[in-house]
């Protein structure tokens, strides 16, 4: 194990809360009993452990960090060690393009400014682990083993702790970003139990470890955050990473048992997407994202016992209208929403159609899901408490009125060019309110859905069911959910 793997540092991020919930479901543990496909032996890790750069705090006005034992601070602009501390905590604040560093005082003590530095700054705990063989006595006798050294980390105020190093950098906007540089396998220790309950079947945990490693390595080789100096976030925007606090011996065992193993397609590491539950069937990538990915094809799932296999929520039409207006998808009154576009193998649609005073427009079903924090992309939309609604306009107004014609074709007219006759046949006076349209609108929209997540790739609940009920090995689970892939060591 590398020195940085053995070292644990504490990172206290001001106003930072990391997502720590995984699927949140308990299941009985079990072990896959079938052999790997084709009887092939497991690949064995032989290469170096790549470093993963995890963005822990992005664009923050300050960052606090420290270690429970000795640590050093290095200015990476010139590789000079600028401070060595026996323990404690430092506060980093931006000062133009430089970084100001000061001690965080204890009770009754004053803060001391250490200096201004160009940065980036690296915080690294000094390894206190005894060297190998240090417990052996001269002459070949072996005294009782010494207790393991106290881990070198600190968690004041309940702050999270992390293995590896911490870098603090100044962003383009003059704020600070904290990045955890951590070896891949140590990173996965903090991911697997956060993404899948550690009580689930060991073979499912191994499948999760390989999927998480593949996803992370795919991001390391050029993910969407690389231009910002890190590879992944520690939240569900990438995959949930809890650091040392997120580790569990069962998750660590799954990582160790699959060390270095990744999934490849045509020799390239895949973007191994996964979700908690597909709701009965995973989906083809083009239905969710708009473009096809050969290894992300829909297959029947085995997640019927998942707690959120069925779910429902109701959204008032006024709240839906405000969110759609605020997000810029459409401006004006909302009258109805309905599934649209192509329907996939799981029943998911590609789009949602919006009808309103703005005419007709569409939004991607996955964007609609994110906008309203829906659990999955597999849902139906049901109008509730429909009622007739009149749309009055004052005669003589200069604002154009949008009228919907056959097939949803819109035209615009001005009420100033219209003449309205009352029941007595007399012309209404300018400024009088007249009803130009009447339509059936709901008071709310009920969203009835299945599963949790985008439904692409590995279904975590399905993987657990395959391991428990069918005795699938982790290799078989992975080859079921990812089409045409190989299990290799990178």
Sequence of strands across the biggest β-sheet? 5-4-9-11-12-2-13
Task: Compute the number of helices.
Answer: 10
Bin the helical content.
10-25%
What's the pLDDT, averaged over the residues? 81
Biggest pleated sheet: 7 strands, mixed
Task: Report the β-strand fraction as a percent range.
Answer: 25-35%
Number of strands: 28
- The end-to-end span amounts to 17 Å
| Overall geometry | globular
Radius of gyration computed on alpha carbons: 29 Å
Show unreliable segments.
1-42, 129-142, 153-158
**Structural class of the helices, strands and pairings?**
alpha+beta
| Oligomer classification | single chain
Give your account of this protein's structure.
The protein has 490 residues and is an alpha+beta fold. Among the domains are: 3-129 and 151-272 and 457-489, no CATH class; 389-441, no CATH class. 17% of the residues lie in helices and 33% in strands. It is built from ten helices and 28 strands. It has helices at residues 3-6, 184-189, 192-195, 202-220, 249-257, 285-289, 317-326, 365-371, 460-469, 474-481, and strands at residues 8-12, 51-60, 63-67, 71-75, 80-85, 88-95, 98-103, 113-117, 121-125, 161-163, 165-170, 176-183, 232-233, 261-265, 268-269, 274-275, 310-316, 334-343, 349-356, 359-364, 379-384, 387-394, 400-404, 410-414, 433-441, 444-450, 458-459, 486-489. Strands 5-4-9-11-12-2-13 form a seven-stranded mixed beta sheet. A six-stranded antiparallel beta sheet has the order 8-7-6-3-1-10. The longest helix is centred in the middle third of the chain and has 19 residues, at 202-220. Residues 1-42, 129-142 and 153-158 have low confidence and may be disordered.
């Amino acid at each position: 194990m590398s020195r940085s793997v053995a070292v644990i540092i504490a990172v206290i991020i001001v106003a930072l809360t990391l997502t720590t919930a995984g699927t949140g479901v308990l299941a009985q543990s079990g072990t896959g009993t079938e052999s790997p496909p084709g009887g092939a032996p497991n690949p064995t890790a032989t290469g170096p452990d790549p470093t993963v750069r995890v963005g822990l705090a992005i664009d923050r006005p300050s960052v606090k960090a420290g270690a429970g034992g000795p640590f050093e601070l290095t200015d990476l602009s010139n590789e000079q060690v600028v401070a060595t501390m026996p323990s404690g905590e430092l506060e980093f604040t931006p000062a133009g393009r430089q970084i100001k560093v000061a001690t965080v005082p204890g009770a009754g003590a004053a803060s001391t400014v250490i200096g201004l530095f160009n940065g980036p700054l690296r915080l690294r705990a000094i390894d206190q682990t005894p060297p190998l063989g240090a417990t052996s006595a001269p002459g070949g006798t072996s005294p009782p083993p010494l207790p393991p050294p106290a881990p070198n980390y600190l968690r004041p105020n309940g702050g999270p702790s992390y293995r590896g190093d911490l870098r603090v950098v100044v962003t383009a906007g003059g704020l600070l970003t904290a990045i955890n540089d951590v070896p891949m396998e140590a990173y996965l220790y903090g991911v697997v139990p956060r993404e899948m309950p550690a009580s689930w079947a060991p073979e499912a945990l191994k499948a999760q470890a390989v999927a998480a490693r593949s996803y992370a390595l795919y991001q390391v080789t050029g993910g969407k955050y690389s231009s910002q100096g890190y590879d992944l976030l520690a939240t569900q925007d990438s995959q949930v990473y809890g650091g040392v606090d997120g580790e569990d011996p069962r998750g660590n065992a799954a990582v160790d048992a699959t060390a270095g193993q990744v999934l490849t397609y045509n020799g390239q590491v895949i973007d191994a997407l996964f979700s908690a539950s597909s709701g009965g069937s995973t989906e083809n990538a083009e239905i969710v994202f708009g473009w096809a990915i050969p290894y992300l094809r829909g297959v029947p799932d085995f997640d019927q016992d998942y707690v959120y296999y069925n779910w429902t929520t109701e959204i008032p039409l006024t709240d839906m209208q405000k969110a759609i207006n605020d997000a810029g998808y459409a401006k004006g009154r909302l009258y109805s929403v309905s599934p649209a576009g192509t329907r996939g193998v799981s029943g998911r649609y590609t789009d949602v159609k919006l009808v309103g005073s703005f005419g007709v427009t569409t939004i991607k079903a996955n964007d609609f899901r994110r906008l309203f924090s829906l659990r999955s992309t597999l849902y139906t939309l049901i109008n509730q408490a429909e009622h007739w609604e009149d749309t009055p306009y004052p005669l003589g107004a200069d604002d154009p009125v949008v009228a919907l014609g056959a097939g949803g074709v819109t035209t615009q007219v001005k009420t100033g060019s219209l003449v309205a006759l009352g029941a007595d046949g007399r012309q209404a006076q300018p400024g009088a309110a007249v009803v130009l349209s009447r339509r059936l609108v709901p008071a709310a929209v009920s969203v009835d859905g299945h599963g949790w997540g985008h439904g692409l790739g590995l279904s975590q609940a399905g993987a657990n069911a395959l391991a428990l009920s069918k005795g699938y090995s982790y290799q078989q689970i992975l080859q079921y959910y990812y089409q045409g892939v190989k299990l290799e060591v990178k």
